[in-house]
Each structure stands twice: as C-alpha cells, then as structure tokens.
Amino acid sequence: MNNLLETPIEYLKGVGPARGELLRKELGIHKYADLLSLFPNRYIDRTRYYRINELINNGSEVQVVGKVIHLKTVGEKRTRLVATFTDGTGDMELVWFQGQKWIRENIKLNQPYVIFGKTTAFNGVFNMAHPEMEPLAEHEASLRSAMQPVYPSTEKLTQRGITNKVMSKMMQQLFMETQALFSEALPQPLINELSLLPKNVALFNIHFPKSQDLLTKAQFRLKFEELFFIQLQLITKNLIRKHKIKGHPFGSVGSYFTDFYQNHLPFELTNAQKRVLKEIRNDLGQPAQMNRLLQGDVGSGKTIVALMCMLLALDNGFQACLMAPTEILANQHYLGLSELAEPLGINIKILTGSTKTAERKIIHEALQSGELHIIIGTHALLEDKVQFANLGLAIIDEQHRFGVEQRSKLWRKNDIPPHVLVMTATPIPRTLAMSLYGDLDISVIDELPPGRKPIQTVHRYDSNRLKVWKFLKDEIALGRQVYIVYPLIQESEKMDYKDLMDGYESISRDFPLPQYSVSIVHGKMKPAEKDSEMTRFAANKTNIMVATTVIEVGVNVPNASVMVIESAERFGLSQLHQLRGRVGRGADQSYCILMTGEKLSNDTKTRIETMCRTNDGFEIAEVDLKLRGPGDIMGTQQSGVLNLQIADIVKDKEILTLARQYAIALLKADPGMIAPENTALRNAYIEMTKKKNIWNYIS
Ligand code: ADP
Ligand code: MG
C-alpha cells in the first residue's frame, strides 16, 4: 500500500496536470504521501447551526440550513448575483461576484442547503459573500465531520479554484484510493505503552475528525511521531560522533588541577558547578571529542569551571584557549583567569585585535612551541597565523555571537580536534536546546553562588524620573555605582546617538561635578578610550556609567548595584536580562529600573512584567520564546530547522520531552534498531534521513 503513496499527485482523481503543477509549486506536494501529510492548520467547529434570526453582526463564521427562494442579477457593468436565502426564521442574502453563470445554472431553488461563511449586516439584512454551499443530503453523507479542517493554502491556490473545500475533496479521494491503509512506523510495544492511536486511525482523524477527543489523540500521536524521529536522528548522530570523531583523552588529573582544587580555590564550588565539572571531566576522559554546551545564567560562575577544565588539559600536556566575542570581555577573562591561576605558575597570554605586532609575534611563536599554555582572545585567535603545538581544549564564551563556521575553524587547527566547550549566558530554553542541540551534550549551572541577594526589578514611567534620580542619589551616597543604559538599534542609529548624548548631558546636569562624576561608553569610541572609561568606572572613580548596549556582555563591576534601562520597551527580553545581570554581583542589594513611556504594547507589558517577576533566566527565555517564536531567537539561519509539519516546539514541549525520553530508551536497548519489532521503524528512519538531514550544520 505504501507504493501507492509514491504516486505522483496529478494521478489523483480530480487533480490532473494543471492542479498537480500548482500543488507542487505552491505547497511542495509532489505525490500522494505529501498530500497525506499536509496537516490542517486549524479546525472549524461546524457542530453548531444558526438560525437567521439569531445572527449577530460580529463577522464570525456561521453555518445555516435553509433554501434559496429567489435569484437575481444586480448592477449594470459589474454585476453580482444575489440569492434570497430563508430558513423560516428570517431571510438573508447570498452574494456572488465571480462564477455567477455556474451558480445560476447549478443552484436548485427550494432545496435544503447547508451554507457556511462570514456574515455581515447591511441595512439590517445579513449577507454572506461566496458561501461554502452544499445540498443538505450530500453534507450529511460526506466523510467530512463536524470538525472541519482548514488546510494551509496560498493566494494563488485560492485564486485558481483550489479552495479549502476542494482540498478536502482531494483528501477524501486520497483516502478512498488508498483505502486508508497506511503502514505503521512506530514499534508496537511503544504504541501500547503510550496508548497511541494506530497510524491509520490517527491519519484518518487528523483529516476527518470524528470527535474532538479523537482529534486530540490523533494530534498527539502524529506530533509524538514527528518529534520522536527527530530525536532518534539527533541522538544517533551524537552516538556516531562519540564513536567516530577521535579526541584526546585527558586520562589523568594532574598536579595543576589538584593543586588548584586543594590549595587555591577562592570559594567553595556550588553543587551545580561540581556537577557540571564532573560531567565535563567524564567527557574529557573519553577518547572521543567533547562537544558540550555549558549554560549558566549571568553570574552563575562559569569562569572558574572553564579554568578548571583548562587545567585538566594542561595536566595532560595540552594547551587550551578561550575565545570571547569582544575585547572588553576577553580582557576581563584574562584578568580574572590570570589572578585565579597566579599561584600555579602557568603561562597565560591575551591576543586581540589591538595586540601590538611585536607582542603578537612573541605569542605566535610561544603558541607554536608549546611554551604558552593558555591563550585568551577574540576573533584574532582564528587567524591562520595562530598555530598551536597541541591544542587540547577550546572554550568559546557567549556562543551565539560566533557563527558555526568560525567555531569549526578553531577545530581545524589540529589533526585531532580539540575538545570544545561552548559557554553561554543566554539560557536557551530546554525545549529548544533539545531540538536544536540534541546532538550536543548540555550542562547547566542552575544555581547562583551563595549570598547573592536577588535583584529587585521595578518598572517606572518617564514621568517619574525625578523620583528615580532621587533614588540614584541615595544609592550613590551609600557608595554604590549606577549604570544607565540607552538602546542602540542599527537602523535608527543617528536618533539613538542623539538620545544617548542628550541623556548624557541631562544626567551630567542632574548629577553635577564635583559631587558626582559621570562616565560614558558607546560603540563609536575608540577601543582604547572605551577601555579607559570602563577602567575608571571599575576602579570606582566615577559614579555613573552612561552606556549603550556595549556593556551588555561580560563586564564585572561588583560595586555597581543599580541598572537603569532607558526606553526599556525597545529591548528584547533576553537583552534586558543580560543587562540586568551586570548588577547583583556584589554583596549589596541590587536594583534594576526599567524606564518606559506611557503607551505600551501588550508584548511590551508582558516583557516588563516578566522582568519584574523573575530573575530566572530559563523562565525568561521560555517567555521570550513564546513571544518571539523560535526562529527569531536562534537567528534566521537556524529557523529552518524548526520547520515542523505538525508539532510546535513551544506548545508541545511536554511531547518533545517524552519523545526524547523514549528515543533515548529505545536506542539504548537497540542502537541499530535491528530488533524485529523495530524493523518498520528502521525503514522509516532510513527514508527520513535520506530526505531530511537538516541537522548537519548545527554542530
Ligand atoms: P559567569 O557565569 O557570568 O561568567 P563568573 O564566572 O564571572 O560568572 O562569576 C561571577 C562571580 O561569582 C565572580 O565574581 C566569581 O568569582 C564568583 N563566583 C563564582 N563561583 C562562585 C562560588 N562557588 N562561590 C562564590 N562566588 C563565586
Ligand atoms: Mg562570564
């Protein structure tokens, strides 16, 4: 029966070459199977019939049973056909602008019809333009049920007469020709365990739902199947990578690590840090390349984990590198790591765009000879001139700023690729991570170091600025420092700079010298100028830092305890959260103040409300995902990955989790899917990987 599904679509009765061409072009439907998996976007509830005297003028879609008692053509040049339709409780008008001749010839007066469509009222008379119309008897006999599917369509398709009704008819034809016998792909034990509908029943009810209950079950079954196959693919790839891509096993824990752990840890590690280190150490001990994502909210303490991983590399005779997206951040890492590693006598250097030529040369040589153990840097590390003696571990901070291509460039610096640890403070919602990075291992630091006071976040309108300024003065009087951040969005750059400079001027007026001093940092300044301003602020020589989102990534000034975000309505949720993470790094109570105008869209209200409610980056990421959809979050490049047929990554995360869990269990028990009960599964899997190996470029 499956062979039949390979039949080109034009052979389906009622399709033919012209419509076949349209279906191919507009919806990518080439054969029966493609049509079968064109799932409805939504369903119209046609269980309810309306009486004409109970219609209300709200533009909703209604269904009425009645008879056409009169038919006339109205108008001179551009005529329309108007039918008087009655059901005994009142009259309404049906109107056609197109296809008048056909309607006139085919419509039967005084016969019961079911009509369906949107009504509007004009001069107290309801009318329905181009109603869907069907003789009552035919309507009752059809496969179609009360839950009427609405299929994806395009303007062209409707123009050329392939309406939703036509689509439904084609689907009906497909089910008749195939006798609705579709072979099962999921293993029977799995179907039993989860009480899934059999494939046949599920497909039937997705297109012709017999009841809401069966529709729900059909949707569940098909979503599960879709996500299950994706997970099978991701997990299989991960297993293959672990077998095939060789890596340097860091077999021993040596003196650097032990010395540091026993004698120089500046604080006790949190349980989350310990757990993550264990996960990473376990990976590093294997003769396969590690490819791990380390997620941890701002301030969760990723740096020390990074250092300890690098020490493991050193202990095993390898070099390590850490790459950061900006010079400021690279510097900060350099300072932090040098300080931590100081007592160990390790050779650490930094390489960025502004490293002087002479110094650069020394670094290049030291890296090549192996004399230099750890290098911190920016994109400058990716240059061809940078060659390592034996790079064993590459750590990448703030992964979303580096393209995939750049990452793999780092790998290619050796025959055997280094282990890769990608650190990100942008918490990717677990569901999304599971579907996008399912073939990457993921570690999460989900606990902040002890003693931190949660940041208090409030929303203030611009009209309350005086009170906010008063608050800032009180905090400054207590010795604290303040960030005031302005949005800088590319397209409106000029305006934004004006806002920033105006803001800076008025702040300088409101916080005058000599009592106060105000710094400013923005993207148009030279790196050296920027750095010197940042350094002044970090050394507590200025009270207020006025900035654009330049400071978004990484800056660490523990004494800064207030973050004011201007025009907060213009920032996305994850950006707001990142910015807020600049404060709350010391022992003091910290605050984040979101300034906005009076008029806010609903989405903005949700963003602001979410920020005020929670500090949990994962919760925020989930809300962000709901507001923006997965494509926006991961960037357009990856959004194609999320082109799912029926499941929805945001709405169906429980099903995704379930699918992943069962996929892992199945592959654990039967990695090659060779057990007899998995034969159909394996065949379907092979078919799918032939068609849709879209995951290649992710890691
Ligand atoms: P992020 O994850 O944002 O990179 P950092 O590594 O910069 O976070 O750590 C933030 C701050 O918390 C640093 O000042 C660091 O020294 C401190 N820190 C990290 N881990 C701990 C811990 N276990 N106990 C106390 N302080 C810690
Ligand atoms: Mg960091």
From TrEMBL:
<dbReference type="InterPro" id="IPR045562">
    <property type="entry name" value="RecG_dom3_C"/>
</dbReference>
<dbReference type="GO" id="GO:0005524">
    <property type="term" value="F:ATP binding"/>
</dbReference>
<dbReference type="InterPro" id="IPR047112">
    <property type="entry name" value="RecG/Mfd"/>
</dbReference>
<dbReference type="GO" id="GO:0016887">
    <property type="term" value="F:ATP hydrolysis activity"/>
</dbReference>
<protein>
    <recommendedName>
        <fullName>ATP-dependent DNA helicase RecG</fullName>
        <ecNumber>5.6.2.4</ecNumber>
    </recommendedName>
</protein>
<dbReference type="InterPro" id="IPR011545">
    <property type="entry name" value="DEAD/DEAH_box_helicase_dom"/>
</dbReference>
<keyword id="KW-0233">DNA recombination</keyword>
<dbReference type="GO" id="GO:0043138">
    <property type="term" value="F:3'-5' DNA helicase activity"/>
</dbReference>
<dbReference type="InterPro" id="IPR033454">
    <property type="entry name" value="RecG_wedge"/>
</dbReference>
<dbReference type="InterPro" id="IPR014001">
    <property type="entry name" value="Helicase_ATP-bd"/>
</dbReference>
<keyword id="KW-0227">DNA damage</keyword>
<dbReference type="InterPro" id="IPR001650">
    <property type="entry name" value="Helicase_C-like"/>
</dbReference>
<dbReference type="Pfam" id="PF17191">
    <property type="entry name" value="RecG_wedge"/>
</dbReference>
<dbReference type="InterPro" id="IPR012340">
    <property type="entry name" value="NA-bd_OB-fold"/>
</dbReference>
<dbReference type="GO" id="GO:0003677">
    <property type="term" value="F:DNA binding"/>
</dbReference>
<keyword id="KW-0238">DNA-binding</keyword>
<dbReference type="Pfam" id="PF00270">
    <property type="entry name" value="DEAD"/>
</dbReference>
<feature type="domain" description="Helicase ATP-binding">
    <location>
        <begin position="283"/>
        <end position="445"/>
    </location>
</feature>
<keyword id="KW-0378">Hydrolase</keyword>
<feature type="domain" description="Helicase C-terminal">
    <location>
        <begin position="471"/>
        <end position="631"/>
    </location>
</feature>
<dbReference type="GO" id="GO:0006310">
    <property type="term" value="P:DNA recombination"/>
</dbReference>
<comment type="function">
    <text>Plays a critical role in recombination and DNA repair. Helps process Holliday junction intermediates to mature products by catalyzing branch migration. Has replication fork regression activity, unwinds stalled or blocked replication forks to make a HJ that can be resolved. Has a DNA unwinding activity characteristic of a DNA helicase with 3'-5' polarity.</text>
</comment>
<dbReference type="GO" id="GO:0006281">
    <property type="term" value="P:DNA repair"/>
</dbReference>
<dbReference type="Pfam" id="PF19833">
    <property type="entry name" value="RecG_dom3_C"/>
</dbReference>
<dbReference type="InterPro" id="IPR004609">
    <property type="entry name" value="ATP-dep_DNA_helicase_RecG"/>
</dbReference>
<comment type="similarity">
    <text>Belongs to the helicase family. RecG subfamily.</text>
</comment>
<keyword id="KW-0547">Nucleotide-binding</keyword>
<keyword id="KW-0347">Helicase</keyword>
<dbReference type="Pfam" id="PF00271">
    <property type="entry name" value="Helicase_C"/>
</dbReference>
<keyword id="KW-0067">ATP-binding</keyword>
<keyword id="KW-0234">DNA repair</keyword>
<dbReference type="InterPro" id="IPR027417">
    <property type="entry name" value="P-loop_NTPase"/>
</dbReference>
<keyword id="KW-0413">Isomerase</keyword>
